[in-house]
Amino acid sequence: MNLVTRCPACGTAFRVQRDQLAAHFGTVRCGKCGSVFNGVAALVEEKTERLSIDPSPQLGLFDPSRRTPKATPGDDTPVPEFLAERAAAPRTWLWASLSVLALGVLGLQIYAERSALVARVPELRPALEAICRVAGCAVPLPRRPDLIRIVSSDMHNDPARQVFVLNALLRNVGRFPQQYPELELTLTEAGEPVTRRILRPAEYLDARAAKNMLDVGAEEALRVHVDARSVRASGYELCVYPDECVKQPKQ
């Protein structure tokens, strides 16, 4: 048999059962205003006229056999507070976990693409360098071979030393400092390649360029000696690797 008890603080009525009241010595907490009161002393008579009765969230916790009643059309009974909190808690933890995961993935992407980010937005370098100082990483200079130009080049023989001497002038046309590129040198004879070599920065830079950075709009002259003792060549091709090379006649 259901009984009705009314909160003396806010006047909200709740349906209760005898065994619920007996299990807690009659003490209940109002699910509306949170007041603690004696549910036995506050019992009211359920008359024939309809009372404004709310389910008791606190008593529902005490009785595991109770289930949340299914909502029916037109039923404006408020959802018990404890059920709303219980339903919201998993969603809160889920969103928090997903947010942390998303931040972690974003951080990994920024770390992996930090050099490319600086190439696209050079103004980000100070912020990324500050983060790396804390994280123990570095922000390498970008390398964009497509933004390096070979302004001029020539190659001639040096019979005394039996070498070919290659002179070239590089220019950075990007809007950010970047690493020196790798160069591809191909010696040719009658238009056909004889030998090909990839020149790394350490092979063509001198002590003046030891900082390993070609600044915005800067130019760098280079000179490379190629062993000619076992090679017969009348021309060469020079390009910024891996861009397409343009054939040049050897002078």
Explain what this protein looks like in three dimensions.
- With 251 residues, the protein is an alpha+beta fold.
- It contains six helices and 13 strands.
- Strand 3 and strand 4 form a beta hairpin.
Give the low-pLDDT segments.
Answer: 56-75, 79-87
General shape: rod-shaped
Oligomeric grouping of the chains: single chain
User: What separation lies between the terminal Cα atoms?
Assistant: 111 Å
The number of helices is: 6
Helix-strand makeup class:
alpha+beta
> Taking strands numbered 1, 2, ... along the chain, how are they ordered across the largest sheet?
5-1-2-6
Proportion of helical residues: 25-40%
Q: Biggest sheet, in brief? A: 4 strands, mixed
Rounded to the nearest angstrom, the radius of gyration is 41 Å
Taken in chain order, the helices and strands follow as EEHEEEEHHHHEEEEHEEE
Mean pLDDT: 76
Q: What fraction of residues sit in β-strands?
A: 25-35%
Q: What is the count of β-strands? A: 13
